[in-house]
Amino acid sequence: MSIARPVSELPPLSQEEILRYSRHLIIPDVGVKGQRRLKAARVLMVGAGGLGSPIGLYLAAAGVGTLGIVEFDTVDVTNLQRQVLHGTKDVGRPKVESARERIRDVNPHVQVIPHEIRLTSDNALEIMKGYDLVVDGTDNFQTRYLVNDACVLLGKPNVYGSIFRFEGQSTIFCTPEGPCYRCLYPEPPPPGMVPSCAEGGVLGILPGLLGLVQATETVKLITGIGEPLVGRLLLLDALRMQFRTVKLRKDPQCPACGTHEIKHLVDYEQFCGIRGAEEAERVNGVPTITPVELAERRKRGDDLDLVDVREPNEWEIGRIEGARLAPLSSFAESLSTMDSARDVVVYCKVGARSARAVRQLQAAGFKRVWNLAGGILRWSEEVDPSVPRY
Amino acid sequence: MSVTLRLPTVLAKAAGGQTVHQAKGATVGDVVADLATKYPELGTRLRDDKGQPYPYVIFYLDDEDIRFQKGFQTPVPDGAEIVVVPAIAGG
User: Fold this and answer.
1) Which residues of chain A does B68 touch, with a Cβ-Cβ cutoff of 8 Å?
2) How confident is the model over A74-109, as pLDDT tens digits?
3) Long-range interactions of A322-325: CB distance < 8 A, separation 24+
4) Which residues on A lie below 8 Å from B56 (Cβ)?
5) A248/B contact by beta carbon, under 8 A
6) For residue range B43-71, what is the model confidence (pLDDT) as tens digits?
7) Could you say which of A137, A194, A246 has the minimum Cβ distance to residue B10?
8) Which of A287, A338, B25, B29 allows an S-S link to B72, with CB 3.0 to 4.6 Å?
């Protein structure tokens, strides 16, 4: 598998480019031809976050001629622990802007095409059709299925990578002979089962390691060298520093690349069970109390059992004074320590996990139980700024 | 048959904090059942109510996807290695 263009279609290199890329040009496998292929290449990065940062920096440095970046987010200070494409001065700016600026500095020969928009079923095919391949560095299941299906429909390779805490996965999907994302994972996990990096954390270096696997595979596809990571899933365990590959097979029954019954992009939020389900879980039947209301009740001296359902490592970061810890992961065991005659207020980081805890308490017969709206982050914002935000 | 089962860190918490486990069983399903007896919470993360694998948690027996073999009925050679690969989406 390679997307290498015929030599007759390749743009020439300027003298300045020849000097800049000299360490590539003297590798026989890359050479002038490979570098001209890189210059001609049009790569779309979906996401300019943890994975997108090393991908963007290295593909730019390597001389990929056109880099499209789909990203609607702005730079947040919590991104900087891993998103090295952005700097402290960029906090609050759109990521596509800081990415474009940084990439221009790395290599002014690269044309950056910013797409400051959320990739959706309505715009994905239109955006993606102008590129040779797509590098998936998104952070959620719905966009991953969207990118996959669009790549299958357009016949474009999808250089995939995903990470969680200390582990990563990478492969190339959607080549004519290889499997697609749906061959590997026909269905996503239910919402809430797999924590996101924002909820579960990620070792900042990990996207650097895995993003460079994706960048390496991208350069190999463009230049036509080596054995691409097709039909093999690379599993990275950073704690043991083990890389292993398992075999990926194309599923003849896959609705995307096997039977081709997926002829159009679908509603991926619905497919991933997000629309409605999370909202319903958050809102329906879960009584809430705002931080200000809770502060007033505490000020009045009301007898309240304030329960923190986060994990112990989050508790160590900071907590609401007077609370006690009962992590949601072992909440069933904590139920016996609670008194249904008392008023119970439950909180977590932003309010989603505590909503689940409230449901468990309700199921156990608790009548006077409330979820702290917005969790400890909103408490910090509205009541006690000495509680650290994270 | 004695086999090694490797879990990702995301599932280790449900398995006593350990990612590498020794287990017994004639098939992949038996091995999962063996571990589920020891760690009930892990059991619910590895198989559904009907005892079948989830479509988002993939089992590799000596680097081969068991879905293209006999699923949980796939026989396990002595000393084999099972790797559990759940879908993750972080980026």
Assistant:
1) 249
2) 999 999 999 999 999 999 999 999 999 999 999 999
3) A322/A298, A323/A347
4) 185, 187-189, 194
5) yes
6) 999 999 999 999 999 999 999 999 999 99
7) A194
8) B29
